[in-house]
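Final paragraph of the annual report: two paired records, presented back to back.
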Amino acid sequence: MTIKKTLLASAVGAAMTAAAIVPAAQAETSLSMAYDADPVSLDIHEQLSGGILQLSHMTFDPLVRWNKDLEFAPRLATDWEQVDDTTLRMTLRQGVEFHSGNAFTAEDVVWTVERLKRSPDFKAIFAPIASVTAVDEHTVEFTTEKPYPLLLNLATYIFPMDSQFYSGEDADGDPKDEIVKNGNSYASRHLSGTGPFEVTERQQGVRVVFERNDEYWDEDSPGNVDEIVMTPISENATRVAALLSGDVDFIAPVPPNDLERIRNDDGTQLVTMSGTRIILFHMNQERVEAFQDPRVRQAFAYAINQEGIADRLMKGFATPAAQMSPEGYAGHVDGLEPRYDVERAKELMAEAGYEDGFEITMMAPNNRYVNDAKIAQAVAAMLARINVTVDLKTLPKAQYWGEYDDRVADMMMIGWHADTEDSANLHEYLTACPDADTGAGQYNAGNYCNPELDALVAEANLEVDLEARAEMLQQVEQTLYDEAAFIPLHWQDLAWASATNVDIEPVVNVMNFPYLGDLVVEEE
């Protein structure tokens, strides 16, 4: 396949200068895009994050994916059948090739699931799968130990990888399928998927170039973009200025302060929707003895003004939260409200013996979530009112996740969207007792642990009566609230903006995984 190059339009400040290149050949249709950060790796099993899943949808295909109505749409799986209570059979699409030219078969699905089951970030949610078997070249069976109601939800995570491409050893003698967290591996630098785009150039923190896969199987896709040049621009004002000046065609996210500015610009369009990503802070009970006292954790919850953050910092472009599950999720508990009350917070601190407060460290990203650094600063100021002195440090996303994995601060920020669109996923990753062997609590930086809740979630994941299952998950949410297991802030709304000839509305979604393979750019 011939690699085509294009000129990225004139730079906006230093952030854009490094992205400009001299054109070798003009692509038929090229899109210049600016996200707040680029993917941290090309290994789609290295990290469970929004950025990696966005990359996955560009360069791989899932077995099934969500449509606009949050229904399952076939992709590499064309049909499926629940054979019995513990067996799901899937028929796979024929005639599909990986970017390498290798044929896609059931063996690639088996290989991929087995790799997912040993990924530190993914293995917890794939634990219910006892085995996956290739029945023939284009039929695969998933077997669970017990009835499991979310197998199709899990299938949205399965982006079959090129098992031949990733087998063997690299030039250094390391396994090509090795998963290295925040490190350097063959899979973190090389990619062969079945998706609409191939990665043809990557300079971490500078630019990623995606070239249309000429052999892409989806001939019904309306997508007409031949090349995408993605440039990370962490500074909100610079990213918006790049769009308004015409230097880029598509940006995300759009900061709340600039929503009206883009709405009122004749050359751009804005698409917004309510989001389901919870933004929260963990309080590390292993690092800070005081956090082991639920009264202290409750005091912190009472000290934080979620509605003030949503109103003033987010300009109303967020929904204040008192729990992880947004409305519409099975575990959502009606009536749980943010509990901002500084006087009550002071009373609880005194009851716990910390009337004079104490010092903590806090860490947050500064280019991952909308206004993340400003939110952290606001939370630190609010905690000062109950005599808690906060040493705050913010980092770019690329550096933050390694620190997060190492739990280097007493309070750490994270945002989480349940990609299975299910409440159990939130608990499994964010509040379950951390277990490196199973992957449970992989992102539980508070080290909160309630084995009874873990058992209840496990039971809920085997319950096929959806009403009974919802009651279990609501009990989990209520207990997490009562014990102040974490500090919920808000559900972050979503916003994307583009030039008027870039038809982004059909491809964006509440998961925040734009299906850019289907993107249409109209002639101006």
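The closing record of the year follows.
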Amino acid sequence: MAKQNVAEQFVDILVRAGVQRLYGVVGDSLNPVVDAIRRNSAIDWIQVRHEETAAFAAGAEAQITGKLTACAGSCGPGNLHLINGLYDAHRSMAPVLALASQIPSSEIGLGYFQETHPDQLFRECSHYSELISNPKQMPRLLQTAIQNAIGRSGVSVVSLPGDIASAAAPEKSIEHALVTTRPTVRPGDTEIDKLIRMIDDADRVTLFCGSGTAGAHAEVMEFAERVKSPVGHALRGKEWIQYDNPYDVGMSGLLGYGAAYEATHECDLLILLGTDFPYNAFLPDDVTIAQVDVRPENLGRRSKLDLAIWGDVRETLRCLIPRVRAKTDRRFLDKMLKKHADALEGVIKAYTRKVDKHVPIHPEYVASVLDDLAADDAVFTVDTGMCNVWAARYLSPNGRRRIIGSFSHGSMANALPQAIGAQFVDRDRQVVSLSGDGGFTMLMGDFLTLVQYDLPVKIVLFNNSSLGMVELEMLVAGLPSYGTTNKNPDFAAVARAAGAFGVRVEKPRQLAGALKDAFKHRGPALVDVVTDPNALSIPPKISAEMVTGFALSASKMVLDGGVGRMVQMARSNLRNVPRP
């Protein structure tokens, strides 16, 4: 048997860790690894057009599967392109291993062509970032990187010079069993006892949920019923907690709606469950707050905190449910449910008032029709900006759908590359990218990746020829919009020229048919919808503080839009409220 080189050993370890694909762009220092993948049938090389796409795609795949994924970039400029997507993956707690290939090891530190120091550059967006400077470091260093990415839910970066990748691997290198799943974390008895006393002593309890409630829907509902608590959520908690939720009072934040803000401010005890919600302007400072999070560094960094609970949300609630005293007084819960329903009724007119005849097309209408026509298990990837607004207000979670975006990092251009990673996981599952024209054109080259691999991603392009959210921010700050207008082509014609399905929609009556045709198409498809750039109404009085941290008044006044099916959900929940 021929002796392995380091690159082959590297690839074998990735396969043992469950990695099925390596996203990247080939280059000289990376060639030994790519060639090793070519000769290994257990892993595929996914050729993208930009390394930023590779990192976003790997991050999305990791969020869909919960398993380790990988991306790669060649030395210098190649791996530098990974950094934005890696920041997003790291802040989304997606386990990603990034290979940053390096210049020849003998030239490091001498100003060689394309020289950078990736082991230093990526430290802020990773749990682990190290250079392999000797073949004997393999495989221990890679195994350590893998276990950091999986165990700590984030990014690890391994820098590997091309000459070392080509070198012979040590004959007696140590390979140990890899950690490929994370354990559950149960809080300590002392903290559980304290939280039980706080809950029993409180008359009005509110739960505010983030992405850390994934897999804990049943426990959250059971606990809410036991303590008669309204349940609000952050944007990243929407897909996990809003569906089948008779205690739902909506979402807080700039994109918020309903009574979530009131419920968090009018309670005696606010329990933050698995949320690192960043906008402290929306959190109260005069109520008792307990926080539960599996990452201790998140505890107390957004608000004042009376009790910190280090543990999984699901395990914590399982400890609480049989021990907390069941409450019988529903007055606070019913009051919040009624406020929530009333708040949604108040904005539904903006969504229903002749929007099916409005030209240019209301983006709210596009999102609502898309929500109706998309599959029950669709994966939606959502561009940052106004697409976040439409996703937050119109996409209906049901426990099977997924909604992925750059919700923590806030990068433009994330939706298309994330759709690539999501679609590679399952070609038969519907993947829909909600793209803005600004974000789409930033990484538009990777539309060709869809065509090259015949990935059946459906892109719904909200084309308002502007950077809508940036324009809104300028107007809220009292500034004239400047540098926010895009001169766009007919994107449907561009799609067709690239070999994909493309259709342009300029009138509302064309929309449903265009979406149905795109969904029926077996390959990649783009629906270019010309939408109204003036879809948002601006309040007559604006303070500068509204911009900073997206303060409450801006969220309540600026976004005068509808809320889609959430009105029906609120009406249904309101039926549970006893009438006087």
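The radius of gyration is 25 Å. This concludes the annual technical report; the extension proposal builds directly on these records.
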